[in-house]
Design a protein that fits this description.
heterodimer, A: alpha/beta, TIM Barrel, four-stranded antiparallel beta sheet, 13 helices, globular, B: alpha/beta, Fumarate Reductase Iron-sulfur Protein, Chain B, domain 2, FAD/NAD(P)-binding domain, five-stranded parallel beta sheet
Chain lengths: ~425, ~450
């Protein structure tokens, strides 16, 4: 049986699946139920000066009938009393001593950070996560992403937290920056033991087209919120990978952003995460989704002969390259398996209207023909095909030696003739 | 214009066999559609409705646009959504059938959009500017309605002659009531006529009340959409006994009036086509405990749709294959059918006689053809009882066009709609010459 135990920044967890600091980690009873369901750890919803929220708070993005493919919120940090939160942290630690509780914090002055850190650790926190990421409500008050967007402030506050903490400090980063790397490096200079990313993306989830009010609607107004859910995974994967491949960084990463199942979790781990955090999918489906995450991951590890999580971490980073280093002489063409093809010809429309006009209908059959002399190997047909394994991208032996754009520019290396250019 | 329907119609006891979709289910189903390119479902539809487009519009709650797409191709899109044998047309051609997944419920989605159009009173078409041309249409069934509506879009004045007092043709008098009842057919007729400029003369029999030659003199073009005639008789002793009916005639009585079934315990339906299966399912639906279909051919050789027969069997229908009736007997009214088995060449097998008890016998072995009413007109060719037409519905005699069952020998409502519309395009061309434009 593969060992799922892992740690991020010295915070040990029986498995890599943590609840993110968010509504599913709002109270002791919730987190206790999550641990019973199998979650490894939980990041307690951000403590600070309790706030007051608005109605409504959430918005969903529906794509071709899939509700919540993207999600947003305008909720703030905890609205519960500090006493209640601390009491429940202690109670939950007592009931589930092996499951790490990481307490998310957001404060303003050094003194208030110091006091909140001490209270959290006294209650039993196994680690702290500094919320430098919230892109709505708190940032206007000089906290959240307002901190995360300024490396100098990030570094200073992180150093305060590290100074007063006896448990590992993680910094939660905002994606609302042009380049994540300076922000990760700032957290490292401040003494953080690891980072969590991404927080939510500044966004407007939609507009009520009948009342002309953006969503979520608060009486007759709205505001920008934080975008999350399955749709943000690609952005999160990139930011995680950008830090994981940065030679000057080197801190452990807790990956967050659009993780809905074990497959997503594996992708985050392969790009450098040692734990992953989940919020939206729990909000949409509940804690029991972790069952599939656990045994899906175990089965994946068996299939690939991994016995421990750390053997997987960053396994895909060496293959993450700069565009200029890609082999431009590698050539693929699409092939249709006529036995599997159902004749929908969705690939024909996609190729004609959205790609390179090389898939054509044929007389006497619904199976289209691919003009391989024109096919640029773009993948679009494979992506739109509704039949698994019907269209495959097959490499062509064109006799060309590998050559990148950088090789070409630096050494004049010969590139293969362009295809599909008229 | 048309006689009001009786509220005591036997057909009113039937519920819809295929239940309508409500909004959420319709949107979910619409979202499954792959939006095929050069879609097989369009190719399978005689009226070539742009099915992927109307389904996509349902998925986005653009139901008005969806209905417009449907009606632009087929003005009878509402009735077709209910009566079309989609299993062998659009749905049967859905590519999901090759993916071991349920095909898209195209008929139900079309019903969703078209029902909403009717409920909301949406109008999509206006009559074209008057051309001063006048077209007569004989019969008020789907073919004539489709033709007349299209002719009005071109601006030609239309007059429909209907020999019955009820308009709508088989949509009103013949469609199985678990698919559509007569009142819904009349809703559709009214909706189609709302384009204006279509005069309907009921209780007028062309050839009797008004002569063909006077029609030809008074109108610029004539469209013949008279459908089929009376049930074909079996030609066996006892056929005139009470309790013995032609199936089409009995179905019309059941739909427009009341058929007394209280005393009927056993029914035998003779035939193996879709009218026979309809009659089987209708008699079962009216509560007759035992219904048997008697067919001279084999199960696999029947012309009725297999999905319809499957539904009949699920309702409790029985069948006797490769057998024919030799006589109907009874004391004043039908009580039993004398039968004999036949071989693969439909020849009687010696000493294979048997008897089926029956107090209702419905004969569904075909209908007479009405094309002979035109036999006095030179230039019109009658072929096996059908009016011969080209692909545009032209008969070969100047001014005269035809479509629907009287020309195709008896097909679906959707074929009649397609042929009526095609004839209208052709008539327009005929009337307007090189000025014609669609």
């Amino acid at each position: 049986m593969p060992d799922l135990s892992t740690s991020t920044g010295g915070i040990h967890s029986p498995n890599p699946f943590w609840l993110a600091s968010a509504p599913p980690a709002n109270s002791g009873l919730q987190i206790q139920r999550a641990f019973e369901a199998g979650w490894g750890g939980a990041v307690w919803k951000t403590l600070g000066v309790p706030i007051q929220n608005v109605s409504s708070r959430f918005g969903g993005h529906t794509i071709r009938g899939v509700q919540g493919a993207g999600f947003s919120n305008i909720e703030l940090i905890t609205d519960r009393t500090l006493e209640a939160n601390l009491r429940e942290i202690a109670e939950t630690k007592r009931l589930f001593p092996k499951n790490p509780i990481i307490v998310s914090l957001m404060e303003e002055t050094e003194a208030s950070w110091r006091d909140l850190i001490k209270q959290s650790i006294d209650a039993g926190a196994d680690g702290l996560e500094l919320n430098f990421g919230c892109p709505h409500g708190m940032c206007e008050r000089g906290m959240g992403s307002a901190v995360g967007q300024e490396p100098a402030i990030n570094e200073r506050i992180t150093s305060w937290a590290v100074k007063y903490s006896t448990v590992p400090v993680l910094v939660k980063l905002t994606p609302n920056v042009s380049d994540i790397v300076p922000h990760g490096l700032a957290a490292k200079r401040g003494g953080a033991k690891g980072v969590s990313l991404i927080n939510t993306i500044k966004s407007i989830i939609g507009v009520d087209i009948d009342t002309f009010v953006p969503q979520p609607v608060v009486r007759n107004q709205s505001t920008n919120g934080g975008y999350c859910g399955a749709a943000v995974k690609p952005i999160a994967l990139h930011m995680v990978a950008a830090l994981a491949r940065e030679k000057d960084f080197g801190l452990p990463i807790s990956g967050i952003g659009g993780i809905t199942n074990w497959r997503d979790a594996v992708e985050f781990i392969l790009l450098g995460s040692s734990t992953v955090q989940v919020c939206t999918e729990v909000m949409l489906r509940g804690y029991p989704i972790v069952q599939d995450m656990i045994d899906g991951l175990q089965q994946y590890m068996r299939t690939h002969h991994f016995s421990r999580i750390d053997q997987m971490i960053g396994k895909a980073i060496p293959a993450y390259s700069e565009w200029g280093d890609l082999d431009m002489n590698y050539e693929t063409v699409a092939k249709i398996n006529a036995d599997k093809c159902i004749g929908c010809q969705v690939c024909v429309a996609a190729c004609h209207d959205g790609a390179h006009q090389c898939i054509h209908p044929q007389e006497g059959t619904r199976v289209p023909r691919i003009d391989e002399s024109e096919c640029v190997g773009c993948n679009l047909c494979q992506i739109v095909c509704p039949v698994p394994d019907c269209i495959s991208m097959v490499s062509v032996d064109n006799g060309q030696k590998p050559a990148s754009w950088n090789d070409h520019v630096t050494h004049g290396t010969q590139l293969r003739p362009k295809k599909g250019v008229h | 214009m048309t006689a009001p329907l009786s509220t005591q119609r036997s057909e009113t006891v039937f519920q819809d066999f295929k239940l309508p979709l409500h909004r959420d289910a319709a949107v979910a189903e619409a979202n499954r559609c792959l939006f095929c390119s050069d879609a097989p479902c369009i190719q399978a539809c005689p009226t070539a409705i742009d099915i992927p487009q109307f389904i996509r519009k349902i998925a986005t709650d653009n139901v008005h646009g969806s209905a417009a797409t449907i009606f632009d191709s087929n003005i009878l899109g509402m009735s077709c959504s209910r009566v079309c044998p989609v299993e062998v047309l659009c749905v049967g051609s859905c590519v999901y059938n090759h993916l071991e997944q349920p095909p898209i419920a195209i008929g139900k989605l079309q019903r969703y959009a078209t029902d909403l159009a009717f409920e909301n009173g949406w109008k999509f078409f206006t009559a074209g500017p008057s051309t001063g041309k006048r077209v007569a249409l004989i019969g008020s069934g789907p073919a004539s309605l489709a033709a007349a509506h299209q002719l009005r879009r071109f601006g030609h004045a239309c007059t429909i002659f209907e020999k019955r007092s009820t308009v709508g043709g088989l949509n009103s008098t013949g469609v199985a009531p678990y698919k559509m009842k007569a009142d819904r057919s009349l809703d559709e007729v009214e909706w189609i006529l709302s384009i204006g400029g279509i005069e309907v003369k009921t209780d007028v029999s062309v050839g009797t009340d008004i002569s063909l030659t006077s029609l030809e003199k008074d109108f610029d073009a004539i469209f013949v959409g008279v459908g089929l005639g009376a049930d074909t008789a079996l030609g066996v002793p006892g056929e005139s006994l009470a309790g013995v009916h032609g199936a089409v005639s009995w179905i019309e009585s059941m739909k427009l009036g009341s058929v007394g079934m209280a005393a009927v315990q056993r029914a035998v339906v003779i035939g193996g086509g879709n009218t026979a299966i309809d009659a089987v399912r209708e008699t079962l639906g009216l509560g007759i405990p035992s219904v048997t279909m008697l067919y001279r051919g084999t199960h696999s050789g029947m012309s009725g749709y297999s999905h319809e027969w499957k539904a009949a069997m699920e309702q409790g229908a029985q069948a006797v294959w490769q057998s024919v009736a030799t006589a109907i007997e009874g004391n004043g009214r039908a009580q039993r059918v004398k039968c004999v088995q036949v071989d693969d060449h439909k020849a009687p097998i010696a000493a294979s006689d048997f008897t089926l008890q029956a107090d209702l016998v419905l004969i569904a072995i075909g209908q007479s053809k009405l094309a002979s009413m035109l036999s006095s007109l030179s230039g019109i060719c009658i072929d096996k009882g059908c009016i011969r037409v080209d692909t545009n519905g032209f008969t070969g005699r100047d001014k005269w066009f035809a479509g629907g069952d009287c020309a195709n020998g008896g097909k679906e409502v959707v074929n009649a709609a397609a042929e009526g519309k095609a004839a209208a395009m052709s008539i327009n061309h005929h009337l307007m010459g090189h000025h014609a434009h669609a």
